Amino acid sequence: MRTFMICKNVHRSEIPDRFKEYDNRSYDEEVEIFIKEYTKPGDTVLDMFAGLGTTLIIAEMLGRVPYGVEFLEDKYNYVISKIKNKENMIHGDARKLIEYEFPPIDLVYTSPIFMNKNETRDPLNGYKTEGNYAKYLKDIKKIFTDLKKFLKPKSHIIVGVKNLKTSNGITTLAWDMGNVLSDVLFFEGEVIIGYEGPRDRESFGYDHYYCLVFSNR
User: Fold this and answer.
1) DSSP code, position 75
2) Per-residue pLDDT at 186 exceeds 90
């Protein structure tokens, strides 16, 4: 696989107006490339930060079997309205992943909710409680450690993430996440994604995006 790609910023699935103000979905072409690269029809694909369901929708379109977890009820309800395998979607917390039941997973394609180092609310529970960046990275590491229970040998895990540039400075989220996840998964490298056409999702100061590629060895 190439380590730099330009993808069209296109979504096949129209979302309700209430989600459009902060539409942070991965673009369809990006997800489709990785699913085709690392799976075959009939394989299982998991996204434990399902959001608006792009991974699940594309996986199902390509003949894969999707599984997902989403914390926010409104988004969970939207996703199950868009997929056929509704019973494979869990309204839950990725930090409780070990408590859920999944079949052996061939591919994980996910993008955890981002956190800026200066934030003081926890994005992993919808900003309902206080939090900090160190705890966030610790929780991310635990989620992916628990994930190993469900992974097939030699399966791949793709994590979409960005470094974040704001008026308060730069959060090296992509690099920090790569470091903590490399403790529990084998890091194969990164693919840098650029986008063709006007931007329609929050860029956090950058016009590229990292897909960190790990495997379960």
Assistant:
1) H
2) yes
CATH number of the domain to which 138 belongs = 3.40.50.150
CB count in 10 Å sphere of residue 200 = 14
Specify the long-range contacts of residues 90-97, CB closer than 8 Å, at least 24 apart. 93/69, 93/124, 93/125, 94/48, 94/49, 94/69, 94/124, 94/143, 95/124, 95/139, 95/142, 95/143, 97/48, 97/69, 97/143, 97/146, 97/147
Q: Over range 157-170, report the average pLDDT.
A: 93
Identify the domain containing residue 191 by its residue range. Answer: 4-9+18-215
- Given pLDDT bands bounded at 50, 70 and 90, which one contains residue 166? confident
CB 163 within 8 A of CB 204: yes
What span, in angstroms and rounded, lies between the C-alpha atoms of 31 and 58? 7
pTM of the model as a whole: 0.95
Query: If you average pLDDT over residues 109-120, what whole number do you get?
Result: 96
